[in-house]
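Would you be willing to look carefully at the protein I have copied below?

:::
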Amino acid sequence: MIYYDFHIHSCLSPCGDQDMTPNNIVNMAMLSGLDTIAVSDHNSIGNVASCIEVGKACGITVLPGMEVETAEEVHILTLYPSLDAAEEVYKEVYKSLPSIKNRPEIFGQQMYMDSEDNVTGYEEKLLISPTSLSMNRLFDMVKSVGGLFIPAHVDRHSYSVLTNLGFIPDDMDIKNIEVSKNVEDLDAYICSRPELKKYKIFRNSDAHYLADIAEKNSYIDCKNISELFTD
């Protein structure tokens, strides 16, 4: 079994706390007993490489992730088998963001960091804007590089595919969804939404603060994390 948390924001996300540095994230995950995490900032992979480097030193696997906001204002958690695969999608995501400048006094800083938690720069384009990419287009991009396309926090009343569209489109071969930690009784929730029974469900923290990173609760029944991308 592999214990995981695939939805963690770093200090690059403007809504992420400034304490969400590569070393703090990885070490908190280690203290929580996790085997694998993904750093999944809003519309960016800018701090993923640093977190991967720290993870290797600590014995924790860090997957490249990104929480993309589509043109429908739906949040999609995307996970990638390699940094190169993530980079290919990220280039298109970044180009599709509107040219709105971040206002740190309102939205928060967007900090790039190295593996020693030194600030190497600031992202000026606001990352929490919707991209111009449709769900279908993003799905095709993610699948083309062998990644996972996971509609995020489907139970929430904002930025959720079920809230914004009212359904999960059946013209895409979506196999996975994320149900947020706010749902205490998962079985009861799924019974209330029987159309969700056919999906594999991930439970993540969506952590913006160190204390929110998941405990050793959610796991994948496999021996190697690479199996995650072979389903």
The chain has a mean pLDDT of 96.
